[in-house]
Amino acid sequence: MSMMEKTLTIKKATREAFGDEIVELGKKNKNIYVIDVDIAKSCKTVNFIKQLPDQHINVGIAEQNAAGLAAGLATTGKIPFVSTYAVFGSLRMAEQVRQEICYPNLNVKIACSHGGLTPANDGGSHQAVEDMGVLRSFPNMTVIMGADYYSTRKLVEQAAKIYGPVYLRFTRDKVPVLYDENEEFIIGKAKKIKEGKDIAIIANGDTVHLALETAKQLKKEGISVKLLDMHTIKPLDREAVVDCLKIGKIITIEDHNILNGLGSAVCEVVAEEGKGIVRRIGVQDQFGQSAPYEKLLELNGITIENILKTAKEMLK
Amino acid sequence: MKNISIEELKEKAIEMRRTALTMIHEAQSGHPGGSLSAADIMTALYFKEMNIDPNNPTWEDRDRFVLSKGHVCPIQYSALALRGYVPYETIYTLRKYGSPFQGHPDMKKCPGIDISTGSLGQGLSCGVGMAIGGKRDSKDYRVFALIGDGECQEGQIWEAAQTAVKYQLDNLVIFVDNNRLQIDGFCDEIMPLQDIEKKFDAFGFETKKIDGHSMEEIVETLDEIRVAKNGKPKCIVCETVKGKGVSFMEDVVEWHGVAPNDEEYKKALEEITGGLQ
């Protein structure tokens, strides 16, 4: 059964994917380390601690120190994964990530749960809507968000294999499982979910399933959608974006500020190519608040309804 | 550890000071004050204490050095040039395009730099990571970190300190270059640090306060530390004088980050050549 026909009923948070994959990676490679900052339970590293205590460090509530420590550890040949929330991994330790990890290009991974609006009940203080934008502006950094449980596991595995700093963003809340267990993913290569000719939709992370649902509905109305899962926003798969310009109309969808994230990255390519138009759907340059996750998406127009409306307007 | 006498080390300290000032003068840019306050500690580490191999800068069993107060890199570059990590003439390239001697230490550009630094307060965490790596790999190397007193105003220093104690890093030695000055003035006026030794002691370090310009005391302390494998990280608070060895630079805030002109340089070299009085 193709993904387009699948009913997306099974849901799993992508932080679970990190928690499960990192144990497998750690067992295979003794140089894989996890550095926790007192939130092991919510970042899903508890199994790692139980099974691989010699590859684990907990520095307590001290993110800046965690980043620097990881850098030092990386100089001794380890592959540390600093595990925290996206808001801290991108902002509280931003300068440490820049200075001690990206500047010397050390092999440290920043693995962050609670990406975007997914820590919905926690409120605006905990919802990282600017993290990917901050991190994609650091030279040497790779920036990734998987769309579901299985793709996230594969991307975590890939991140451990490539040399250099990687920022991985996970959801706190559950999102539908989209892919089969054996689907392969390559960092920096967009996953083409569907080929189409009327409009292109490029989504990432927890918005990919919304894009998929929208594409199904548009299909019923005779509109054919090309759909890309842009799990890596840096390095961006430029070729895949350029390919969308054959259609010329692109909608980007992300659970991130429309500034500096996926939408901006796509716009950069489109502007440089000098053809095509883009509509960005995402967080409307505003902070979140405590509310159900779906309500927060709705407040920002990250809904199937709004994607449909935007597509139809573009096709007029 | 190398066999070298106190007298020979004092001679090396003269060469270190001369080299650092020469490079700052040539660049007409850099930080002389802190380079001179750290000169004697750095001399003892690079010419006697540290187990390093200039021909194999990335040797995995080497002792590591972290210059957390990265702006005083001219004194570290002096050590690297004098020990032969790079040709001595490299000193004339400080802060110039293409130089391994960047304005702040860059491990990707300069052999012998174990971690890039330059943003204050961050280096100690890296040193802690290196020391944990050494412990987990059952290696005997040690990690030496030089931090500034002004830098101890950064909270991250204390985050790193508590981690060093938790993980019983007796392979970590911190030197505090306690020269009492920072860019805007005396630390006591800008943000008093109180008793730094007592602070590290309260965190669980084994501590000692010494005269950071007495080669005898520095060497004696390093001898003591070498045998103390007791599960405790070490912190040596070195009482120093910013600009030490050049009378008109000593304790003068303005010499934090200004290069000497030709006349000042000439006068400084004359004073340095006599050694510390």
From TrEMBL, chain A:
Domain Transketolase-like pyrimidine-binding: 12-177
Domain of life where this protein originates: Bacteria
InterPro entries in alphabetical order: PDH/Transketolase, THDP-binding, Transketo_C/PFOR_II, Transketolase-like_Pyr-bd, Transketolase_C
CDD domains assigned: TPP_PYR_DXS_TK_like (cd07033)
Name of protein: Transketolase family protein
Lineage, broadest ranks: Bacteria, Bacillati, Bacillota, Bacilli, Bacillales
TrEMBL record, chain B:
Annotated CDD domains: TPP_TK
Claim: Transmembrane is one of the keywords in the record: no
Keyword list, A-Z: Metal-binding, Thiamine pyrophosphate, Transferase
Pfam family, one: Transketolase_N
Keyword tRNA processing: no
Coiled-coil features, chain-numbered ranges: none
Superkingdom, natural source: Bacteria
SUPFAM superfamilies, alphabetized: Thiamin diphosphate-binding fold (THDP-binding)
Domain Transketolase N-terminal: 15-268
InterPro entries given in the database record: THDP-binding (IPR029061), Transketolase_CS (IPR049557), Transketolase_N (IPR005474)
Family: Belongs to the transketolase family.
Protein name per its UniProtKB record: Transketolase
Organism: Scopulibacillus cellulosilyticus
